[in-house]
Design brief:
64 residues; 73% helix
Length: 64
């Protein structure tokens, strides 16, 4: 769970780039699911949403 939280935070902080957006999306989804399955979905809802928003920004930059 800690690794999932740290990964999502790194996405939000801009530490990921747009080289492989689909792999990044898969990792975001897996991390979000790990937090949700651990019963922490509500606690980390803003972080999960922020990571999804950051992915959308990267996608827009890459694909217009």
């Amino acid at each position: 769970m800690k690794a999932a939280r740290e990964f999502l935070k790194s996405v939000v902080d801009g530490d990921k780039d747009k080289d492989d957006l689909m792999a990044l999306l898969d990792k975001i989804e897996a991390s979000a699911n790990a937090l949700i399955e651990a019963g922490k979905g509500e606690e980390f809802d803003a972080l999960i949403g922020g990571a999804a928003e950051k992915w959308a920004e990267l996608d827009k930059q890459a694909n217009g």
